[in-house]
Amino acid sequence: MVIIDIKANAGYRANRQILRKRINQYLFEFGLGDVELSLALVGKRKMRQLNQTYRNLDGISDVLAFPQNEGRTPEGRLILGDIVICYPCAQEEAIAYQEEIDETIWDFVEHGLGRLVGEEKK
Fold first, then answer.
1. I want to staple 108 with a disulfide (CB 3.0 to 4.6 A). Which of 22, 63, 76, 79 is the partner?
2. pTM over 0.85
3. Residue 58: burial class (beta carbons within 10 Å; 0-12, 13-18, 19+)
4. Regions in the chain scoring below 70 on pLDDT
């Protein structure tokens, strides 16, 4: 069972059902079916703060991934980590590439998942 906690400001719209489905498929392809992870959609200010706190950088990233090394939950699920997406960056990129915001968010999530599982999908 995959547990996906998605947090977002009410103004940051994303199709959570499709995100969960795609995340499940991605993890299945890597043989990871019993995991827990979180996904947060944040603004530029929060992303800058995360960069300053955890990377000692003063800038805004479109996506950050924080792998967890906590092992497994009491239920046996692997705690994979956290993915943080800068929603305004996703909006800007969606406009620039003339694609739906959900597609751009998925691109960022997929990149973050690649970091969490230790490799990038092509």
1. 63
2. yes
3. exposed
4. 119-122
CATH of the domain at 70: 3.40.390.30
Domain assignment present for residue 91? The answer is: yes
Count of structural domains within the chain: 1
Match 């906690």 to its residue by tokens: 5
Tokens of 5: 């906690």
Task: Note whether 87 and 8 are within 8 A (CB).
Answer: yes
- Confidence at residue 7, expressed as pLDDT on a 0 to 100 scale: 96
Tell me what pLDDT residue 122 has: 42
How do 63-67 and 35-42 pair as beta strands? Answer: unpaired
Q: Is 77 helix (H, G, I), strand (E, B) or coil?
A: coil
